[in-house]
Amino acid sequence: MTREEFSDAVELPVDTMAALERAAGSHRHEVLFSNRAFHIKQSAVRDVFDISIRPGLISLAGGSPYLRSLPLEELGRTAQRIIAEHGLEALQYGGGQGMEELRRQACEVMAAEGILDADPADIVITTGSQSAQDVAAKVFCDPGDVILCEDPTYVGALNAFEAYEVDVRTVPMDDGGLVPEALERRIREVRAEGKTIKLLYTIPSFNNPSGVTLTAGRRQAVVEICRRNNILILEDNPYGLLRFDGEPLAPMRAGNAQDVLYLGSFSKIFAPGVRLGWALVPRHLYRRFYLACEAVVLCPSPLTQMLVSAYLREYDWMGHVRSSRSLYAERCSSMLAALDEHMPEGVTWTRPDGGFFIWVTLPEGVDTYPLLYEAIDAGTVFIPGAAFTPGEGASNKLRLAFSAVSSEDIAEGVRRLAPILSAAVAAVKVR
Amino acid sequence: MTREEFSDAVELPVDTMAALERAAGSHRHEVLFSNRAFHIKQSAVRDVFDISIRPGLISLAGGSPYLRSLPLEELGRTAQRIIAEHGLEALQYGGGQGMEELRRQACEVMAAEGILDADPADIVITTGSQSAQDVAAKVFCDPGDVILCEDPTYVGALNAFEAYEVDVRTVPMDDGGLVPEALERRIREVRAEGKTIKLLYTIPSFNNPSGVTLTAGRRQAVVEICRRNNILILEDNPYGLLRFDGEPLAPMRAGNAQDVLYLGSFSKIFAPGVRLGWALVPRHLYRRFYLACEAVVLCPSPLTQMLVSAYLREYDWMGHVRSSRSLYAERCSSMLAALDEHMPEGVTWTRPDGGFFIWVTLPEGVDTYPLLYEAIDAGTVFIPGAAFTPGEGASNKLRLAFSAVSSEDIAEGVRRLAPILSAAVAAVKVR
Start and end of every Aminotransferase class I/classII large domain (chains A, B) (predicted)? Predict the structure, then answer.
């Protein structure tokens, strides 16, 4: 089952729309769509967003951060003060690059990860990392240009890239992340087709959906391969600070200012509802990137910028990151324990060192999309693996998120899922 | 002086960047830019954004709404309550279409303008109208496709459209707005070139920058011309409720649900800092438009959505609109009086019935771009007319905004501007 078929099949408001659209398929306006409009896909993650919030259902689908440990009462008072005392600034239009204080603070966040030379002048505050991914594809890719990415990779990035008719090609990973030799081979293959490769999109730390991390040793090798081949690296690092133990690995951007366009996010270290992230752009690429951001939203919200800025200035944000790490580590352990206990033979999974996700592999021949319906009936939900790969093939993988669910619910969710996966494994064995 | 030259000339942080970029023009990454990257321009409005906030300077440039009449103390307490009591929702990811309550409330706002049949299911909440303009160009326009627009039109829309390599063509206006016969003629001319026209982008009420309003009588004529020619209308109506006297004119969308993609904004009836607007999309076009919005930002900020929703639910928002109308009417009068008093012969201007702007025309042969520097030296600032027209020609027009400045400052700003315009008029007379 493909992503498109799935979107059409799941019962959702947008499904009704799809039906309406099909009914109106012969509408005279059909010819008005751009070519790229036909490349814009439904995100499987968003598909299950509405389902996930049904009462009683245990969602192992959405990669939502845990917010209950935020000091909501205090944050409320901070927001009150911002509007009461600085409302004329917070509620007005702001500058297109984002506020200078927040850009300085983004540099502090990056310094905690090992990027020590970031300059606020090279930063654009974006409407989440999603917006930066959209702008990157816009600024760098003509139709048919290639973006290389990990297999699997973030579905939202795939949707953003494919909306620009980008030809997204995957590079194999192993337990140590992107395989440098495989990257070189893929570059040669793609170029032999006469294609132009513009970007390598990578989530080197705790990849979404696989949880896999690119080893420290490979990071510089990947940068050098890309430099030699004149491919810009788009490094997406929303989870970098959420390493369960030890220091965060230095991002690829550290020490490679010219080679990497780095994307940061306040969603996982603070809160997604503010819809703010940032791009640290190589200086020679900054102006066009920044202008494209401005053409898309004029400016990021001054109100939410001021809230994030106050949070980073006045609260123990690093303390919150540390307690989040422990919490996610514990939940990850719970999920690994539940998988150990309940999964049938023939099913394997990753053991992440940080982030939000575990990637489960079923035997060849299993298609995880139809299993989703059975899971929903059984009271749990996951994201089928096909969502995280370009193209239309079936997938024997699935993503489980442990970030937003208690350890008890994680155990129960995996317990509910187990008989469905067992039956699917048994069915392919019989075949 | 063209828009690009202007951007390069004005002393701004981005100017430094332009210089850096030129210095790095031979960087190996230069070849990575997409074709569309070279169509992404600096907005003249944004150019003067930083200048406008210099102390002592009277800015007649930015179209910022007046926010001092908002109850900031109370709004602060509302924000506090939202975060303290509903923080887990406000700070988390939300649905891609936007919250249902806010979509219902957008229908109420539109009902106040005369759109009585809007359905919340046909609405997408967007990151300002700017984002909806970006998505419209993305979903409908291939490179070289034509969007028709008023001459002059909103610079932000021009920037959004041109970033997709859209061929933006203008249709002449008179005091009654778009001239239907001129529209038909332009459609024939453009088609004779073998071009495909996808959209008519129009700001029918109090056009930015001209302040001109499309007469009630012409509105249906324009809709019917577009329907006959299979051109979708993109109706941008941020100022519709800000008519100084009498009832708002019904938008073109009223009664034409199939023909018009309507863009609304909370920026002018509430506050731009929340970065929220909405698109009311013909049902047969909804799904692709919505998916494209989602691919760009995942979801609009739940936090700012809940703040706008609370404002529309708990405050006398229409009372605020009414008092804003009076205030803007008074400021517009002050500006008209100052223009009457100070402008030299040969200079003319529009007399708007609402909105934020007056459009000033100097004699043929005057280029208003270089006058901006003189104006800044004299302590005031405006937007040169060339910003509001596609292409690279000089313009003898300029935009003055009366929305964000007191009547006293308006009088003083126009007084400062007058000798500069007088000298420019005298210079072309001599020639």
Answer: 69-417
* Chain B residues touching A266 at Cβ < 8 A: none
Contact A131 B297 (CB under 8 A): yes
**Element (DSSP H or E) covering residue B260:** strand B260-265
DSSP character at residue B268 = T
> What domains are defined for chain A?
3-69+319-430 (3.90.1150.10), 93-314 (3.40.640.10)
The partner residues of A400 in beta bridges, in order of sequence, read A358
Edge-to-edge strand order for the sheet containing B197-202?
Answer: B123-126, B277-280, B260-265, B232-236, B197-202, B146-151, B167-174, B177-178
Q: Rounded to an integer, what distance in angstroms lies between the CA atom of residue A421 and that of residue A175?
A: 23
Interface test with B, best of A103, A289, A294 (most B CBs within 10 A): A294
pLDDT in tens, A354-386: 999 999 999 999 999 999 989 999 999 999 999
- Between A81, A156, A297, which is nearest B127 by CB? A297
Strand, helix or coil for residue A195: coil
Distance in angstroms (rounded) separating the CA atoms of residues B58 and A400:
57
Chain-centroid distance of CA A196 in Å reads 25
Q: Under an 8 A CB cutoff, do A304 and B303 touch?
A: yes
Residue A129 near residue A283 (C-beta atoms within 8 A)? no
ipTM above 0.85, yes or no: yes
- Rounded to the nearest angstrom, the minimum Cα separation between A166 and chain B is 11
Q: Which of A297, A257, A286, A333 is nearest to A128 (CA)?
A: A297
Instruction: Return the residue matching tokens 């290639």.
Output: A146
From the list B29, B83, B288, the residue facing A284 with the nearest CB is: B29
Select from A298, A324, A406 the residue whose CB has the most chain B CBs within 10 Å, as the one to mutate to test that interface. A298
Asked if B235 and B197 count as a contact pair (C-beta separation under 8 A), the reply is no
Enumerate the residues of chain B whose CB falls inside 8 A of the CB of residue A13: 97, 121
How far apart are the C-alpha atoms of A278 and A126, rounded to whole Å?
5
- Tokens at residue A288, please? 């066009």
A70 → closest Cβ in B62, B87, B295: B87
Verify whether the Cβ–Cβ distance B303 to A273 is below 8 Å.
yes
Of B13, B73, B286, the CB nearest to A17: B286
- The string of pLDDT tens digits covering residues A104-159 is 999 999 999 999 999 999 999 999 999 999 999 999 999 999 999 999 999 999 99
CA distance B18 to A87: 33
At A144, which amino acid appears? G
State the residue for tokens 């223009």. B339
Q: Are A262 and A279 in contact (CB under 8 A)?
A: yes
Q: Between vectors from CA A44 to CA A143 and to CA A328, what angle results, nearest 5°?
A: 115
Name the residue facing B80 among A76, A96, A303 (closest C-beta).
A76
Task: Nearest chain A residue to B74 by CA: give it.
Answer: A84
The chain A residue lying nearest B199, using CA atoms, is: A32
- Count contacts between A and B (CB, < 8 Å): 309
Closest residue on chain A to B86 (Cα): A72
Helices (H), B151-274: 155-162, 180-192, 216-228
